[in-house]
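Protein folds are increasingly written down as discrete tokens. With that in mind, we are printing a sequence and the tokens encoding its fold.
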Amino acid sequence: MKKLTLPFLIIILTVLIWACSSSNENHGLIGSYYKGHTINASGNIDISGLEKVFERTDSLIDFWNGSANHAWNPVKESTNDYTVVWNGYIYIEEPGQYGFGTISDDGSEVWIDDDLIVANYEYQWYDWEDNISEGDNQGETFPSLILDAGYHKISVRFFEGGSYDGIILYWLKPEMGESIIPYNGTHFSDIPPVFNENTNWEIVPNSVLFTKK
């Protein structure tokens, strides 16, 4: 058996380090941060004509600490009037039916493969909505979101229209089964949101989010 030469070992090590660092750099979603907010005629969050302030890679969408009066305020130039759009890919390891949901103040949307699956875009105080059980209308039903294994496009849109602000993105994987939602209520109004410890919903982790395939 031939011994590996030092230059060859250095090449192998360099490639491994590059692959690991490249993979880590690709995790997360690209967030574009804008001044102002717009809801178009279709009722969707729209960035047309808004001024982009900055762009960055966010490791995951977890920008609320659970308190009643949390203020995230990432856009200092427009503290209570801004929009964020996160774009990238989510990697699905196990095919099956998935749930996605947000709790946000103010509005939010989730798009998978260019299909709107969560429409939580009202002016509100930390409202929960998902694509399985919790919509705006009582008795509302939802088409099943069946995802194949592999990469899928994901876009999460969020706007702030005044006062407090924050957002968290959750998912419910097929093996978790049916579950109560993470937070009580639909429109909390003056009732502080309370976390349901027995929920199977989880914050979408950094390990499945990618800026590119």
Notes: The chain has one helix and 15 strands. Residues 23 and 176 are 27 Å apart (CA to CA). The domain at 28-210 is CATH 2.60.120.260 (Jelly Rolls).
